[in-house]
From TrEMBL:
Official protein name in the record: Alpha-1,2-mannosidase, putative
Organism of this sequence: Bacteroides ovatus
GO biological process entries: carbohydrate metabolic process; glycoprotein catabolic process
Superkingdom in the source lineage: Bacteria
Sorted UniProt keywords: Calcium
Glycosyl hydrolase family 92 N-terminal domain segment(s): 32-233
Tagged with keyword Methyltransferase: no
Oligomeric and partner information: Monomer.
Any one Pfam family match given in the protein's UniProt record, by short name: Glyco_hydro_92N
Amino acid sequence: MTKLNRILLGAVCLLTACTGPTGDNGLTPVDYVNPYMGNISHLLVPTYPTVHLPNSMLRVYPERADYTSDKVKGLPLIVTSHRGRSAFNLTPYQGMRESLTPVVAYSYDNEHITPYSYSVYLDEAGIGVEYAPSHQSAVYQLDMNQEAPAYLILNSREGAMKVNGNVVSGYQQLENNTKVYLYLETEQAPVETMVLDNGKTDVNRKETVGNNACVVLYYGEKGGTLNIRYGVSFISEEQAQKNLQREINSYNVKTVADAGREIWNRALGTIEAQTNVDDDKRVFYTSLYRCYERPVCISEDRRYFSAFDGAIHEDDGTPFYTDDWIWDTYRATHPLRILTEPVLETNVIRSYIRMAEQMDSLWMPTFPEITGDSRRMNSNHAVATVADACAKGLTDFDVEKAYLACKQGIEDKTLAPWSGKPAGWLDQFYKEHGYIPALYPGEEETVPEVHPFEKRQPIAVTLGTSYDEWCLAQIAGFLNKPDEKEKYMKHSLNYRNVFNPATRFFHPKDKNGKFIEPFDYRYSGGMGAREYYGENNGWVYRWDVPHNIEDLISLMGGSISFNQGLDAMFNEPLGKSKFEFYAQLPDHTGNVGQFSMANEPSLHIPYLYNYSGQPWKTQKRIHTLLHEWFRNDLMGVPGDEDGGGMSAFVVFSMMGFYPITPGLPIYTIGTPMLSDVKMHLGNGKTFEIEAKNWSKENKYIQSATLNGKALDKPWINHSDIMNGGKLVFVMGNKANKIWGV
């Protein structure tokens, strides 16, 4: 037995010992994952059936528009960007040499996808495909029919490829300064190798560069089984080879898939979920699987390529993570990791700090990707992940440096959405007046930092920055900076500057302090309401003050008026036909009245009844919304699922609680959708949630105890969870309107 074999065997034994719980029916957590859930969109594309190991660099899915597509374009090798197509392409082909093309669109059937494997039958071609990934490498088995000449085509969309016997290597140029490299071996030696250029083969050439750089391996006049293994890298072809050799030493798809299955069970087994409703359990574990899709670890043998400065760095033993759309994930995905994966979450924050250090200015990232920080969306919510970690005792990182990077990213970078430019006039106005000024319909934009399509989003930015500065205040308090804490706490009230007391909505103002009139909170703001809000309309942003809900209740006239406003949102009609509404607001799907279940700014809204004396309505809403919009079927996700942004909401909500305000060590209670949950925490303790009398109908909490003591408030502290123990709900089918008030 080789040393590598002993290492792999030891790893498999260790993982087997840590495998997730097996249910009465013999199924383990990963067996409940349905990667197809949400593959057909209500409007936008919500999910792809992604095959990968948890937070790993190598991810693939079939290259097609969505599940309804009749063709797949070749076979994938690595997806480098969420919702992106595969870098490189692998195409098995049988037929005339004159008909070779860089990529073949295949008719397919009998596709089966798990988180750790992919199989499909290319029916017209008669080719069977089996696939399994490791972290930075993978294996394919291709069973080609015996009736025609057999070829293997490898293509780089924009880059270079070369072939040397049974080895293919090359790179593909991505955005900015980033390349992804490939090293691939076939077990069977080809009869002949060649370059394919403009539809013509050249057996005398073994290298090619440019668009659709393509090499071909010929395996003879009849097909058979062709085994392939490959490694990928963002550093070099040599590193891609090392990654392969470190992880995979055979061509056995089952061996690699079995190891991946154990890894997934260990990750998903951090939360044991029990229910007698099989589909609910599948929704839960599928949602938890989606929380591990990103960010991805791109450290390779303790080194990593950073697109943030275009250099290769030593990681000094701290893995480097990127590809995290923070605007989506700060709300629930990061808080979930604090509970179950604290080491991973710490390394993610450490990675943020490194990114900030590597960029031209020490600014925290907003949308870190493989190719750098794309600065998408609005606000600077990496500060929320730092504040939440500090509030919950996760501080094994340079908090001072993180605070400085957060502060400079908010104060020195422009607040204009989708921009990484320095602060300008718009930002100075915000500092002086406490809000982002809006333009009147048709008024010309003169601020150069403003994106021509994304606009100013003045309400979204004012509210988001108010929260961000509240987060800065929390970190300043942690660092014992009382003057700075006081300054940012004052700024955290800036949302008041755009509150219209006459309508009780957040309402855009011009630079002279006048509200824009006339105004419609459903439709004003153009495409995606971006001229005033952002992807969602004024009804959704009416509630976007997660850091000071008590004050929001006061602004709206007290608890009764606040509850009436919540009720009105869920009952307010679209006001237009669906095709007109969604033509303007395509992200604002999953509607219940003006509420949008499909976009992240809405996620906390159903929980707000807890703060205004009607927690039973939170229980009713959460139960209804989850069953309406998150289902174990192809349309079971209502909108974009951005790296766990929406799925973490499902995970928390099905357990029965939610982190409504990252930065506060508090979770507000909804209603449990599972009969029993055991969270195996990062500190080694276990927190259990039991729902007595639970059923589909029994959605209302009648009473609750925490560690045997009566719990009569609709929230629990972070310490309540981290200390371990047991939360017990007694459920019923009619609301107890007294509990939790």
